[in-house]
Amino acid sequence: MIKPPSKPIFSAAQIGERLSKRVAFLMRCSRREAEQYIEGGWVQVNGKVVEEPMARVDEHTVLIDAHASLLALTDVTLLLHKPPGFDALVALGEAGKRVKPAQQLIETAKHWTQDPAGVRLLKRHFAKLTAAVALETGASGLLVFTQDWRVLRKLTEDAHLMEQELLVEVAGAVDPEILQRLNAGLNDNGQPLPPVKVSINSTSESTTRLRFALKGAHPGLIAYLCERVGLQICSIKRLRVGRVGLAGLPEGQWRYLQVHERF
User: Is-contact 37 43, C-beta < 8 A?
Assistant: First the structure.
């Protein structure tokens, strides 16, 4: 026997009132404050958390958490360990068939289960995010998405002062002469290129891992420098932006920026 579908908790076409109106009545607050309580994950409808203020309720049981507070509704910053092949800056609505926006990885299923920030995950945290620091599509590593205008301003206006650290794996061994040329600075048609600090991180039988440190975001710079000195790049991974690093974050997953972390 086929069971009939269960009745949904709420429906946009259902007769009733907006959840925000019901919460405003129960909390004796403004409609905007009611919307914030709902978006903050403090409201349950028939025992299930509902985060959409426009949801309609009729004879449903609406409960507001006793610890409900609007103080926690701050803008968030998210750190993603981007895999290769994802575009860092393209917006979700601008992606084509051949472009995979990194922002599509910012979803509940890919939230790092060991996230030390202890932030309550809310749907509102996925809205109005801006990718703050460019990273090559073929590279992996730390990518920053933020809702906070202060963080965005810091990462854009102070980009030329903020050091980035990248791990670059190249084929074969790297002679000291090549390291000296990279550290001494190269130029392009007489124009000096942004300075970099390069050191050997580790070696294997077939590859060498180089640590690059440079200030500012310069997509394509490392590839150009390596080409100039005859190095073949196998992979590029950004480990750090300013004082914030990956800190064990697995590839393809994201975490919240912690309160004490500063770029």
Answer: yes
Q: Which domains does the chain have, with CATH numbers?
A: 17-64 (3.10.290.10), 77-160+243-256 (3.30.70.580), 163-241 (3.30.70.1560)
Q: Which of 13-22, 84-93, 94-103 has the highest mean pLDDT?
A: 84-93
pTM exceeds 0.90, yes or no = no
Report the mean per-residue pLDDT for the chain: 88
Phi/psi-derived region of residue 246, left when phi > 0, alpha when psi is between -120 and 50, beta in every other case: alpha
Identify each DSSP E strand in the chain by its residue range. 17-18, 43-45, 48-49, 56-57, 62-64, 77-82, 130-131, 140-146, 163-171, 187-188, 191-192, 197-203, 207-215, 233-241, 244-245, 254-256
- Cα angle 66, 71, 74; round to 5: 130
